[in-house]
Design brief:
The strands form four sheets. A six-stranded mixed barrel has the order 3-4-8-5-7-6. A two-stranded antiparallel sheet has the order 2-9. The protein has a two-stranded antiparallel ribbon with strand order 12-15. The relative contact order is 0.18. It is built from 16 helices and 15 strands. β13 and β14 form a beta hairpin. The two termini are about 30 Å apart. By secondary structure, the chain is an alpha+beta fold. It is elongated and about 105 Å long.
């Protein structure tokens, strides 16, 4: 304890230098915690967006469906498969879907459209195509159209929409639907060309009785998607089909997340440098100025090991104080921004709220998330750096010859 008290008092001999060192470490840790929080929030937003209506946590398809999108690559007996999945306690939601290219016309002019057969109730749940959309009362033969397609067709709500395409059996698929609502979803294809009808109507239109092209599944936890996919693939009802979790469906997203993690470690390295530079400078100067003091202590019988501990304690205190203050301020800033939200577009003075890329709309607003691990990484890094940079000067001080040191 006496060694600790001496080390603490020694830091007050040059308060300006001590304050500057602490501030440098504080600033580095503050920046690391804030940027790491922003990256966590950005990653969460990407995962939530990609594993929402477009991908889900797990998808089931016929083999080669993702490559060919052929009408005949279907999942058979889809009702029983969906019932089995919905009974799984690890599954939060299941949405079968039918996709069919067609021509849609309100009058004489036709436009290329994609008819999407959906379970309206399932798609209205968390992550579904219609999450947050207030649906009009259900009616037979109803259709919902994307906002972009509605701009092309113009004045379509309440009118009859003719759909013409090719059915699974090679016959002409044609029917009339009443446009009940215009919707906007995060999926750009649906907004630009989508016509959403009930899955029963789509199956009847395309002669796909008890069939679907895709089953989108949401689990209880996005991080457990791969385990859920393995569990689903082992079921006999799905054994003949491709069952993939989101990391396999969108490998680009996995790459982005890995890049974010690498970026965090680069920032952590910068904190290392800030701590090393500040503590090394302070320790070298302090030990040089106190040569006579160390010489006197050695002459009075102080063990060299105690000199080493004293100097290293000073460096450790500097590091701990700086990194603790930086962690506290960084955590407060991240928690505040996480509650208020943070707009990337606002940094450039733009008023754009979202960006469409790869067929899906991404929001510019992110909500940073604080993780205690970020603060602990910084604490560990600074503690290690403090002891590493202080060991050399401390060892040299412990080896001073008492008489020569006292002469200066």
């Amino acid at each position: 304890m006496s060694t600790l008290r001496i080390a603490w008092r020694s830091l007050g001999r040059n308060p300006r230098r001590t304050a500057l060192t602490v501030f440098a470490i504080l600033l580095g840790q503050f920046a690391f915690v804030c940027v790491a929080g922003l990256l966590h929030g950005y990653g969460d937003a990407l995962i939530d967006t990609m594993t929402g209506p477009l991908v889900g946590h797990v998808q089931v398809h016929a083999e080669e469906w993702r490559e060919d999108r052929a009408m005949d690559l279907t999942i058979d007996s889809v009702d029983s498969a969906v019932a089995v999945l919905r009974a799984d306690p690890l599954v939060r939601g299941v949405a079968p879907r039918v996709y069919g290219p067609a021509l849609g016309a309100l009058g004489e002019l036709g436009h290329a459209v994609v008819v999407v057969g959906v379970d309206f109730e399932a798609e209205s749940g968390p992550g579904g195509l219609l999450e947050g959309v207030e649906l009009a009362p259900a009616s037979e033969g109803r259709a919902l159209i994307g906002a972009g397609l509605e701009r092309v067709l113009g004045g379509s709500v309440g009118r009859e929409l003719a759909i013409v395409g090719q059915a699974l059996d090679g016959s002409i698929a044609n029917d009339l639907f009443r446009v009940r609502q215009v919707i906007r979803t995060p999926v750009d294809l649906v907004n630009r060309q989508g016509i959403l009808v009930s899955i029963e109507d789509a199956q009847a239109l395309f002669a796909m009785e008890d069939m679907a092209h895709e089953i989108t599944v949401w689990g209880r936890d996005v991080q457990g998607a791969e385990a859920l996919a393995t569990r689903m693939g082992a079921r006999s009802e799905l054994g003949a089909y491709e069952v993939l979790a989101w990391p396999a469906l969108v490998p680009e997203l996995t790459t982005i997340i890995e890049t974010q993690e690498a970026t965090s470690f680069v920032l952590l390295f910068l904190v290392f440098l800030a701590a090393a530079a500040g503590i090394a400078n302070t320790t070298v100067m302090a030990t040089f100025e106190r040569r006579r003091e160390f010489g006197m202590l050695l002459a009075l019988g102080t063990a060299p090991g105690r000199i080493v501990r004293m100097v290293m304690l000073e460096a450790t205190i500097l590091g701990v104080v700086g990194v603790a203050l930086g962690s506290a301020l960084g955590a407060a800033a991240v928690i505040y921004m996480g509650g208020e939200g943070f707009s990337i577009a606002a940094l450039g003075g733009e008023e754009v709220t979202e960006l469409t890329f790869g067929g899906i709309s991404f929001s510019f607003s992110i909500f940073p998330r604080f993780e205690m691990a970020d603060a602990l990484y910084g604490v560990g890094a600074v503690m290690f750096t403090s002891m590493l940079t202080a060991f050399g000067p401390a060892r040299r001080s412990s080896r001073l010859h008492p008489v020569e040191a006292m002469r200066g």
